[in-house]
Amino acid sequence: MSKIDKNKQIKRDSLLETAFGLFTSKGIHKTSISDIVEAAGVAKGTFYLYFKDKYDIRNKLIAHKSSGIFQRADHALNQTDITGLEDRVIFLIDNIINQLVEDKALLRFISKNLSWGVFKTVLIEAGDDSDVVFYDIYHSAFADAGTFENPEVMVFMMIELVGATCYSSILYGEPVGIGELKPYIFRTIRSIMSMHRTAGREPECGAI
Amino acid sequence: MSKIDKNKQIKRDSLLETAFGLFTSKGIHKTSISDIVEAAGVAKGTFYLYFKDKYDIRNKLIAHKSSGIFQRADHALNQTDITGLEDRVIFLIDNIINQLVEDKALLRFISKNLSWGVFKTVLIEAGDDSDVVFYDIYHSAFADAGTFENPEVMVFMMIELVGATCYSSILYGEPVGIGELKPYIFRTIRSIMSMHRTAGREPECGAI
Amino acid sequence: MSKIDKNKQIKRDSLLETAFGLFTSKGIHKTSISDIVEAAGVAKGTFYLYFKDKYDIRNKLIAHKSSGIFQRADHALNQTDITGLEDRVIFLIDNIINQLVEDKALLRFISKNLSWGVFKTVLIEAGDDSDVVFYDIYHSAFADAGTFENPEVMVFMMIELVGATCYSSILYGEPVGIGELKPYIFRTIRSIMSMHRTAGREPECGAI
Amino acid sequence: MSKIDKNKQIKRDSLLETAFGLFTSKGIHKTSISDIVEAAGVAKGTFYLYFKDKYDIRNKLIAHKSSGIFQRADHALNQTDITGLEDRVIFLIDNIINQLVEDKALLRFISKNLSWGVFKTVLIEAGDDSDVVFYDIYHSAFADAGTFENPEVMVFMMIELVGATCYSSILYGEPVGIGELKPYIFRTIRSIMSMHRTAGREPECGAI
DNA sequence: TATGAATGAGGGTTCATTCAT
DNA sequence: CATGAATGAACCCTCATTCAT
């Protein structure tokens, strides 16, 4: 029993990792299920024992990989003694960006999928397994505390800004490399948080 | 001769518009070349007289449609007597957002393609035809004048922010509708421009 | 031992009944062995312990179900005191038709399989189990007694006529409902028997 | 144009005949579209230019082949000077039986499909092309003339009787060969017609 | 006996592309 | 220039069957 289940887990993981490799190297649409099973060394029918179709495995990969990024960032944050909320957010973003720089295939894969739809589904509304790390961060830091006037919009803007700008900068160095871009990103992030502060005393910094 | 050329142009435009209709309604990957030629009322082989393949026609569509948006926004700006640079930029963005709200199929199509890669290729580096409107705006306002410390990065961040946030907000009302989101976008845009002002006297507003 | 054998019988019967339900509702060709075992709640491999393949279970079902029809008809006949041979045959046919009207799924299943091949194999030549009822009827009434000049041909024609006409009439009401059709069937059956009577004194009724 | 159309007709006919050969030799369910195109010497995609799927080609074959049988029988009838209605019907049936004896593959194919559903659809309600021969026979002989009390039921019973009994007799010689069976069939056919004669004076021949 | 994970050949179908007309 | 019949590789997916447990 345990042995069979272990074997199943190995097969499933093998398919997931193989698919990830092919998706990131050839692109999803150029990757066929035949490619996946051949690379994974299993029979075609085996794929369908574990996944409904190509998009099922893609969604499971996105959830899994995105969750991993946030978990590692959160873990790193807990190793520090940073206390200020803004500083903690900047640390998280910096850590995530660094992860993406290190793993460009991952960035290309979740690419612009690190967007609000996925973010909310996967991370805030909590996944099926145990990928619930960010849920805690989000709620304790933003949602519950009355610090921000509209926390959901604020997080949305930060996520979208970071996701969209990093993609081009990290992958293509356009318009500048990530090293040069980071300061601007951080300043914009701080600006966004600042404008959402409830007792906002910063009218000079962005009145429409 | 002229008549034949006109006929050719009609066929080409017919294929472009038909493809756009199908791409936006069924999605690119669900649209086959057979679908396009059938809907356009031409023979299969004819397609290949004008376009290399499905992705060729898609790219030409993106360039064409994006350019149209900027041209209309620029035209509207010229009807006004707004003078301040920041205000002119806000006006352009507001106008573009309104266009996308009116034409959601268009938004879905160029979706996140209204990103830096396309933007630069299509608009700044000047297209093949005559879609050179934005080139003038960009250079006269941002690039040549020494007003901003890094104009390309600034425009990049603005474009990415607007593109990414509008997508989710306009199409899905997530996390809030575009009406509610706009003020935040504009304030962030102003903040970004402000932080790029050469004689920047705003250190308190976003130092990392 | 007895308990194990009972369990085996239960599994076998469960598979048979489940298969019958699926065959009649979805059709044989749309029913897979996976469907059967899943619905029966047993493992895939278990199927092969009892049946060779899908057609094996189908044949056993036809034999079983057809036999049941004849047994019930015969049982009902014995409850009556009808004596005339023609009348007894008409009673049997009427009873069988009524059963098929009540159980259209059964009719559809054995459909045109209630034909000579199956009939002879299953009923006259005696089945494998104990479905030997009709064998007695047939031999005592038709075969042994010298009443009819060619009893096998006679029974053959009656069976085929009833099977073929009932199918269309009961299932689709074409060309008329079974109520309207029955008198014609009975008259034809009587005519067939009449023409096979050895001392045939009925030349006016069908000389070629 | 004419040349291309001729070529298309050749391809279509080639596919039809090839499919017929395979259907009759291997059975429909054992015949794959791959088999058909391979035997016909065309590419797989070509099949789908002419037929929707396997059942589309089967239906077209049944209509085509059944129609041919009736047309040939009718043609032969017109070469004779038989006048009596009963005799004309017997001639038609005899001719059809003889055709089926000569072409057992055809019999196996349309087999029990020479039943009421197909018969009515294909022949009485008139096909799409010009297969309207039997329509004339049927209406002039049975339907319009007030000779028979319920002509549709009468024809139905004759068709079903002949179809069902011939199948077993011709293909398997069960329970007797077709030569021995024919007289019985004809006598039963005459009996059926006789009992439908409007001024029926034959109550003794089949009262229930 | 009973299981059910694994297999992989083969099914139907689509579609970009070619080329003779 | 324009056509559209023909192609055939490649796709996704099913499922009867096996066999180690």
Question: Describe it for me?
Answer:
The structure is a homotetramer of 208-residue chains. Chain A has 208 residues and is an all-alpha fold. Chain A has 2 domains: 1-51, Orthogonal Bundle (Arc Repressor Mutant, subunit A), CATH 1.10.10; 60-196, Tetracycline Repressor, domain 2 (Orthogonal Bundle). Chain A is built from 10 helices and no strands. The first copy, chain A, has helices at residues 2-26, 33-40, 44-50, 54-79, 85-102, 104-110, 116-124, 133-143, 151-172, 178-196. Chain A starts with a helix and ends in a 12-residue tail after the last helix. The relative contact order of chain A is 0.09. The model of chain A is unreliable at 200-208 (pLDDT under 50). Chains A and B meet through helix 7, helix 9 and helix 10 of A and helix 7, helix 9 and helix 10 of B. Chain A binds a DNA duplex (21 and 21 nucleotides) through helix 1 and helix 3.
